[in-house]
Amino acid sequence: MAALASQFSGLRCGLLSSSQLSRPSSATGPAAGWRSGGTSPAGGGEITCAARIGAPLALTPVQKEREALKKLFEEAYDRARIAPMEGVAFTLEDFHAAIEKYDFDSEIGSKVKGTVFMTDANGALVDITAKSSAYLPLQEACIHRIKHVSEAGIFPGLTEEFVVVGENAADDSLILSLRSIQYDLAWERCRQLQAEDVVVKGKVVGGNKGGVVAIVEGLRGFVPFSQISTKATAEELIDKELPLKFVEIDEEQSRLVLSNRKAIADNQAQLGIGSVVLGTVQSLKPYGAFIDIGGINGLLHVSQISHDRVSDISTVLQPGDTLKVMILSHDRERGRVSLSTKKLEPTPGDMIRNPKLVFEKADEMAQTFRQRIAQAEAMARADMLRFQPESGLSLSSDGILGSLSPDFPAVGLHLHDVPPAEDEVSFSEDNIDKYE
After folding, report:
1. Distance between CA atoms of 226 and 241, rounded to whole angstroms?
2. What local confidence, expressed as pLDDT, does residue 47 receive?
């Protein structure tokens, strides 16, 4: 024993590296479980103490954090595998109930409400609270032809009612339309205008051997040549606006027939001698200007522009100018209408110096002109009565028509009470000027 104690008297214990711990021991016999740092005890000398394999090592803070995360993930995995819905308030049944609550009819022709959230050159994407967004193509964005949806007032954030017109087979998204809704409203509007028997404006966009195609309320209508008052060709009428009236409306057959002749006849019926109408200068000629007054071309002769002499019409009027004119005469058979701004001048020459004043005073001056027409007519009738005493009427110096005998009513007729003359007035412009 004394000899064994003397052998361990100089023993030192050193730390082992991790590589030494991982290397399996090849020692056998009494020295197994130890690693020698020098000579073996049997051989004598200095011995290094070996650490027992598998002894716990101290962990760094980073290693501790990784171990905690690993444990957290393992626990979450076990919960998801064993009880996946534990602690979740929104169940699968709730999900199906929510789908049914916000579900809508997506059949062709059904209407849905949506909000535009993106636009591009080809159309717009619309959120309709479905599983995928719906698409509004450019050609379905408006009843009129447009190059971008913004021209139809479609911008992100717009909430509108759309109609489902199709489905995209690639992603099951719906195809929407605003044009279809506007189309239905346009037919309804045309039926209303027909019932009111009003004159509408239609722009000619095409034509064929039978007539022209005009756009009215966004719809394409057909105007046969037999219903056009002018002898112009279809090519000459392209891009021009015509006054029209409805002849036939059939939405089911998409049939819309219009008449220019009926509209012209309606406008002509409203043209009375001395009436003031709004017109647009169409063209200038050396002898006067042609004015469009509701689809009828009237002539404003150079002598009827102003009391002052007009040497160059272009200094007073230009094509496209809008002005008020007075109807001087109307030849229905020949389709000619004579116009005047001269009769509307408050003072001679105002049409050249201050045309704005002429237009402002137009109605007032026209009333004065109509009174002069009535007076001229009454004076002419009075002249006839002077040579026909058997009529029983006489004209006093105050302009009062009265009875010559007690057998006639004693009620007089003052010249100022004569109603304004209408179309039937037979006086020419020369006759009117005679009494000015």
Report:
1. 17
2. 45
